[in-house]
Every structure is written in structure tokens, then in C-alpha cells.
Automatic annotation (TrEMBL), chain A:
Keywords: GTP-binding, Hydrolase, Nucleotide-binding
Name this polypeptide is given: GPN-loop GTPase 3
Organism: Orchesella cincta (Springtail)
Source species, domain of life: Eukaryota
Subunit structure: Binds to RNA polymerase II (RNAPII).
Functional summary from the UniProt entry: Small GTPase required for proper localization of RNA polymerase II (RNAPII). May act at an RNAP assembly step prior to nuclear import. Small GTPase required for proper nuclear import of RNA polymerase II and III (RNAPII and RNAPIII). May act at an RNAP assembly step prior to nuclear import.
Family the entry assigns: Belongs to the GPN-loop GTPase family.
Record bears the keyword GTP-binding: yes
Lineage, top ranks: Eukaryota, Metazoa, Ecdysozoa, Arthropoda, Hexapoda
TrEMBL record, chain B:
InterPro entries named among the record's database cross-references: Gpn (IPR004130), Gpn1/Npa3/XAB1 (IPR030230), P-loop_NTPase (IPR027417)
Residue ranges with Polar residues bias: 415-428
Protein location: Cytoplasm; Nucleus
Annotated protein name in UniProt: GPN-loop GTPase
Biased composition (Low complexity): 41-55
GO molecular function: GTP binding; GTPase activity
Organism, scientific name: Orchesella cincta (Springtail)
Comp. bias regions, Acidic residues: 375-396
Subunit structure, as described in the record: Binds to RNA polymerase II.
Enzyme class: hydrolase
Main location, first listed in the record: cytoplasm
Length: 296, 428
């Protein structure tokens, strides 16, 4: 059994930074974690990739191609398609044959179209699963943007719109916590609570909030029901944060043998009674979150 | 790269405005090369009477609030955003109210409509890649960042256009998250929304939405835009010329129809997609949605009706909220914005020679006149209190911004910490 984290999220949220810090953290704690870069348009990053898609194909080269005449987006899609066509021939040899306990982080491109409009990433996930990987999705969002209840909902929705396609368990990472002011960090703490409902109650009485109250409640319910509201803070200066993220990801993927992981509805087709299984994990999540140290 | 004195002067801010660029009336999507008068634009017969009366209505409305109406076109790659912008332009021409057009996509080739303010005239995309050592994505984000540091000038220009233009059309970069989830995108949207009735258009193409999962992804994303920007949103389903839009209309109005489409398509139930769709029912009820075709012009009447409704909504729902925000948190939010802007400016200068990325007119600009706005000697420097009239705020905005940026740059120089401040370089 091998384990994979697929790191996704809008450009500039700090995905590659997360990957590089995770790699360092792993070295320090003696865990075998390697990073693979799957972003053909990546610029530079700090980690030592196990494999780098830019060795296979690069966006700049594709853009320069006379016949194709593609802009940055088109070129990226072309590269990703090319990558997907060459998973067996290129990626598999790079990441090696199965060995138990293998843990690989895949640093992915930010373009949301890859996840929503195409089944590229879905194919990728399926392929990983065929190679006996357990997969966890990590959706990164910049903490600067989650300054109030409605922005928090906005962030959750972006994560959702990406994840609904992939059908893998996922967690949301709140990046750049280290760049926030103290008061902002305390403020963010509220959003780590599991109840989207309560959050919205606190919002000020404005015509906008009144108009969209029903919608907010309906969305809050979806987020709560699916325990999707969890954002795990990432302050890269804190190794405790890193450790917690790993722990949660581990649980989500069932790394520890006795974790009862009936994680998500869309993973196992036969499980009709997921909600109970989901709730167990919910409680465990909450416990871990309480243990997270957000204050200085 | 030395900064020459003339470049320093330039640094105060030059937004290049193509005053000569006016829609000539021959715009149409590239496949349909006809003159505007012949454009099969309207989807109703006897349209001329209808549009004539609606024109009057629009002109009346314009007097009620601070025009012009700002329409921001947002959408994923290949949604048909740019073609739709072109179609809207030609439609507005036909109706006698040509729009003022701003292009925010630094990486586009040639926009098929005449652009009044083009980010490519202000920021050199290729140069940004060089100076900041970035790839194409990072360069787009950084170009937008650079441009947003001068956005107050754009605001001033738009204000001057109130008398002459009813609509301002803004085309955004093809990568939606660059605009929606970046500091610069927020700065731009919020600056506009504070002063002008602003409507967001979420363009999505019907063809890829045939897949119910994609459909719900798109609607979820649109919903997230609504929550992020808190602006009136119009979900615009494009390309109805290529595919019958009935399925989409059904899915929006009837959850069961969507659910059965979902079940029949997937091998097993996707509960999440189903629950989301249920949750979004309220979204559909509260949001305008229209079906259009940029290619043949279908749906333009519906589109503009939706815009008018949205403008009213802006007045009743958005504006009061903003004013409340102003009263309660003005200093805090303004400071934050200035802070962000200040940081952005500082980061951009620290990471590379920002000045070399700006276009020097006469040397490497294209057409157009250079508009120079003298904000240096403005002596109204004491406007940081909340109770000033809007006029004063607007005039001193750039002034205060610059002051604040300088003040903050000292304070934040020790807060920089790691280099991943996120503003200019886009590490994915």
C-alpha cells in the first residue's frame, strides 16, 4: 500500500512551498516522503523532486511551437494531456515499483479547469489507485482571503467545486498563516470550528446577508454534513502544524491500521450508511483540531 | 538596469488610454463577418421597438446612481468570455451606447474588440517574465499586480467617462483564479464596486456542462464568486448555438431532473454532487441566469435585462452593505487595502525592476495617447477620517494610498519573514 497527497489550489497559494517544507520536515522526522512536480508551468521550487514533469514536457516549449500556436492555458492543457498519455511510460518508472509505506506528494497545477472541465486529474487519481496508492486531496487556500464568514464559504466552495470531481477524501489547507498578523490569526481560529452554521449567525445584519440567508444555511448544511468545512492551518514555521497535517492526512487515507475509515460517500459505492462512518471521523478530526496550536 | 530619470517620472503613473479606439461598428465574432447593422443580434422579432424603449430606460437609470455600469467578464478558459465580450460590444454599438472597454488579460493575443485601456499597453508581459524570472502563469499574476498598483488612475478615468459612456466592459485573464483569488483581483473588483454599479458575469460554456458533475462544479464555483465578491452575479451559459440549452435550464429549475441525469450518468451515486445541487437551489432562485450565444447573438435582450436587474440589486443590496461597512470598518478595511497595495508595491520593487516592466510611450507603446494624472501636489492629505463626502475620498484615494504605502513599507519590512509573500511570484 502506497500513499499519495495531491496538492491543488489556486496559483500563488503556496502549494510548492508546502511541498518543500513537508519534504524538509520528513527528512527531520525520518519519514520517507518524496515530492513529484506535476506542474509543467512551474517556475522554481525549493524541493528536490523525485520526478519532474518538466523533464517530460514544458509549457514554454509548447507555447513556442509554430504549429500549435497555443497560449499559456492551451499549452498547459496540452502538456497535461501529454502527461496523462504517458503515465505508464514516464511516471511509473520515475516513482518506481511498489514498496510498502511509500509516500509521495504530487504538486499539481492550479488551473481549475483541469479539475472541473476535464477528467484529466480524475484519470490520474484512478491510475494511482491502480498502482495501489491511497490518495488524499489537499486543497490549499491562502489564509489572507478567509477574513469573514462569507469568504470562508467562498473558499470552501472553490475547494468543493474542485473536489466534487475527484471523489477522493480531502482536506483544506489554510496557507500563509505565518504571514498574518496576530489578530488575524486569532480571527481565523473561528473558522477552524466545525460548524459553518454558527459562523454565519455571527455575520452582521446587512441586506446582502438577509437576501442570501437561506442559501448560506443550505450551503452550511452541505458543508457540515460532509465534514467538509475543515480547514487545517499551515504556519510553515511550526513543525507541529506539519505534523498535524500529516496525521490528518494519514487518518484520512487509513495509514494507521485501526483507523475506522469509512471516509466519504463517493469513495465506496456500496456504503449506504456513510453518514455514521463520516461522523466518527468528524469527531476525531475535531479532537485533532483542538490540539492544533494556532496561537503564538 | 538603471532607472533613468524619465522613467522615474513615469513611475508616478501613466495609464495609457487609447482615446482613439472607438467601436467602429464592425465588430463581430470572427466567424461572422458582417456589419453591425446586419448582425442577427436580437432573439425577438420586432426588436427595434423593444430596444428603443429599453435604451431610454437605461438612460433614465443612469441618472439615478453613479454610472457608468461596470460589467466584469469572468470565466474559465475556453468559456467564450472574449467572444462574448465582443458580442456585447457590438450589441451595445447597435443600441447606440458603445462601451468603454478595459482588457486585463496580459497574455492574450489580439482582442477582437477595440480596447480603451489595455493592460498590455501598460505592463509588458514578456518583460515581467524576464525581470521577475517567472513562467507564464506567474507573469500573468504579476502583470495584474503591477497594473493594480496603478488602478486608482483607471478609476479616475472611468469617472470622467460618466457623461459619455453608460457601460464599462472589463475582460479578465483566462485563468479565473488569477482574478478571483489574488490580491490584485480583489483590489480591482473592490475599487470598482465601491464607486460604480458593478455586475459580475460568470461565463461558462454549455458544451462542457453537459456533464452534470462539471455543471455542478461550475455552479459551485459561481456561488463561490458570489460569496467572495458580494456583487450581483449573472450566470451566463454560452454557446447555445452549438447545443440545445434546454437541459441546463431544466437542471436549474428542477432538482429532480438534475439528480436523475446525475444518477444515469455515473456508475454510482455521487452523493456530494447531489447534495450540492440541492443546496444550490436557493442559489438559482436568487441569481440571474441567461442563455446566450456569442456566435450568433442569441440572448442579448435577456442578458441586458439581467444586467438592469442586477444594477437595481446593486443599489438595494450591495451599496447599503458597503456603506455600512464604511461606517463600521472603514478605516480598518481601507488600511488593509492600502497595506496590501503597499506591500504589493514594495514586493514588486524588491523582487525585480518593476519600472522596467512598464511601457514607455513613444518608445515602445502602440497607438494611443498617454494620459498623465497629476496627483503629486494634491494638498488634501487629511482625509483619513470616515465622515468625508465621497467626492473627497475619491480625489484623495491615490494620494492617501501612496502615503500609506510609504508609511507601511517601513513597518512591514521586518514582518516580511520568508520570501513567500505571495504577491508577485506565483509558485503554484
Amino acid at each position: 500500500m502506497r500513499f499519495a497527497q495531491i496538492v491543488m489550489g489556486p496559483a500563488g497559494t503556496g502549494k510548492s512551498t508546502y511541498c518543500s517544507y513537508l519534504e524538509k520536515h520528513a527528512q527531520v522526522t525520518n519519514r520517507a516522503i518524496r515530492v513529484v512536480n506535476l506542474d509543467p508551468a512551474a517556475e522554481k521550487f525549493e524541493y528536490e523532486p523525485l520526478a519532474d514533469v518538466r523533464n517530460l514536457i514544458q509549457v514554454e516549449d509548447v507555447m513556442e511551437d509554430e504549429e500549435l500556436k497555443l497560449g499559456p492555458n492551451g499549452a498547459l492543457l496540452y502538456c497535461m494531456n501529454y502527461l496523462m498519455d504517458n503515465l505508464e511510460s514516464w511516471l511509473l518508472p520515475e516513482i518506481g515499483e511498489e514498496y510498502d509505506g511509500d509516500y509521495i506528494i504530487f504538486d499539481c497545477p492550479g488551473q481549475i479547469e483541469l479539475y472541473t472541465h476535464m477528467d484529466l486529474m480524475k484519470r490520474f487519481v484512478k491510475q494511482l489507485e491502480q498502482w495501489s496508492f491511497r490518495v488524499c486531496g489537499i486543497f490549499a487556500i491562502d489564509a489572507h482571503f478567509l477574513t469573514d464568514g462569507t469568504k470562508f464559504i467562498a473558499g470552501s466552495l472553490v475547494a468543493l467545486s474542485t473536489m466534487v470531481n475527484l471523489e477522493i477524501p480531502h482536506m483544506n489547507l489554510l496557507t500563509k498563516m505565518d504571514l498574518l498578523s496576530k489578530s488575524d490569526r486569532k480571527n481565523i481560529e473561528r473558522f477552524l470550528e466545525p460548524d459553518a452554521h454558527d459562523l454565519l449567525q455571527e455575520e452582521a445584519e446587512t441586506p446582502w446577508n438577509a437576501k442570501f440567508l437561506k442559501l448560506s444555511e443550505a450551503l452550511g448544511k452541505v458543508l457540515d454534513d460532509y465534514s467538509l468545512v475543515k480547514f487545517v492551518p499551515l504556519d510553515i514555521r511550526k513543525s507541529s502544524n506539519m505534523e498535524n497535517i500529516l496525521l490528518i492526512a494519514d487518518m484520512v487515507m487509513g495509514v494507521s491500521e485501526d483507523a475506522d475509515v469509512k471516509v466519504k460517500d463517493f469513495e465506496e459505492p456500496e456504503n449506504e450508511e456513510e453518514s455514521e462512518g463520516g461522523r466518527d471521523l468528524d469527531r476525531e478530526f475535531t479532537n485533532y483540531l483542538e490540539g492544533l496550536n494556532v496561537r503564538d | 538596469m538603471d532607472v533613468k530619470p524619465e522613467q522615474e517620472k513615469m513611475d508616478i503613473g501613466e495609464i495609457v488610454e487609447n482615446v482613439d479606439a472607438k467601436p467602429t461598428g464592425t465588430e463581430s465574432p470572427e466567424n461572422v463577418k458582417v456589419k453591425v447593422e446586419d448582425t442577427p443580434g436580437s432573439n425577438t422579432s420586432g426588436a427595434s421597438a423593444a430596444t428603443a424603449s429599453s435604451s431610454e430606460e437605461w438612460m433614465e437609470d443612469d441618472g439615478d446612481h453613479n454610472g457608468p455600469i461596470v460589467i466584469i467578464m469572468v470565466g474559465m478558459a475556453a468559456s467564450g468570455k472574449t467572444s462574448l465580450t465582443q458580442r456585447i460590444t457590438s450589441e451595445l454599438m447597435r443600441r447606440g451606447t458603445p462601451p468603454y472597454i478595459i482588457n486585463l488579460d496580459p497574455a492574450c493575443l489580439d482582442p477582437p474588440y477595440p480596447v480603451n485601456i489595455d493592460i498590455r499597453d501598460v505592463v509588458k508581459y514578456k518583460k515581467v517574465m524576464e525581470v521577475y524570472n517567472l513562467g507564464p502563469n506567474g507573469a500573468i499574476v504579476t502583470s495584474l499586480n503591477l497594473f493594480s498598483t496603478k488602478f486608482d488612475e483607471v478609476i479616475n478615468i472611468i469617472k470622467q467617462k460618466r457623461k459619455t459612456h453608460q457601460y464599462v466592459l472589463i475582460d479578465t485573464p483566462g485563468q479565473i483564479e488569477v482574478f478571483m483569488w489574488s490580491a490584485s483581483g480583489s483590489i480591482i473588483t473592490e475599487s470598482l464596486a465601491a464607486l460604480f454599479p458593478t455586475v459580475m458575469i460568470y461565463v461558462t460554456d454549455l458544451i462542457s456542462n453537459v456533464n452534470p458533475i462539471t455543471f455542478i462544479s461550475n455552479m459551485t464555483y459561481a456561488c463561490s464568486m458570489l460569496y467572495k465578491s458580494k456583487l450581483p452575479l449573472i450566470v451566463t451559459l454560452n454557446k447555445c448555438d452549438a447545443i440545445d440549452p434546454t437541459f441546463a435550464k431544466e437542471w436549474i429549475t428542477d432538482f429532480d431532473a438534475f439528480d436523475s441525469a446525475l444518477q444515469s450518468r455515473e456508475e454510482y451515486t455521487s452523493n456530494l454532487a447531489s447534495s450540492l445541487a440541492l443546496g444550490l437551489e436557493e442559489f438559482y432562485n436568487k441569481i440571474e441566469h441567461v442563455v446566450v450565444s456569442a456566435y450568433d447573438g442569441f440572448g442579448m435582450d435577456d442578458f441586458f435585462n439581467a444586467v438592469q436587474k442586477s444594477v437595481k440589486e446593486y443599489e438595494t443590496v450591495f451599496r447599503p452593505m458597503y456603506e455600512k461597512l464604511i461606517q463600521e470598518k472603514k478605516e480598518k478595511s481601507l488600511k488593509k487595502q492600502k497595506q496590501q497595495l503597499g506591500k504589493l508595491k514594495k514586493d514588486l520593487r524588491a523582487d525585480g525592476d518593476a519600472d522596467s516592466c512598464f511601457v514607455v510611450p513613444g518608445r515602445d507603446a502602440g497607438t494611443g495617447m498617454t494620459l498623465r494624472l497629476d496627483n503629486e501636489d494634491d494638498s488634501s492629505t487629511d482625509d483619513e477620517d470616515a465622515n468625508v463626502k465621497e467626492e473627497n475620498e475619491e480625489e484623495s484615494f491615490s494620494q492617501v494610498l501612496n502615503k500609506e504605502a510609504n508609511r507601511r513599507s517601513e513597518k512591514y519590512s521586518d514582518d516580511q519573514g520568508q520570501g513567500s509573500s505571495g504577491a508577485p511570484s506565483s509558485k503554484t
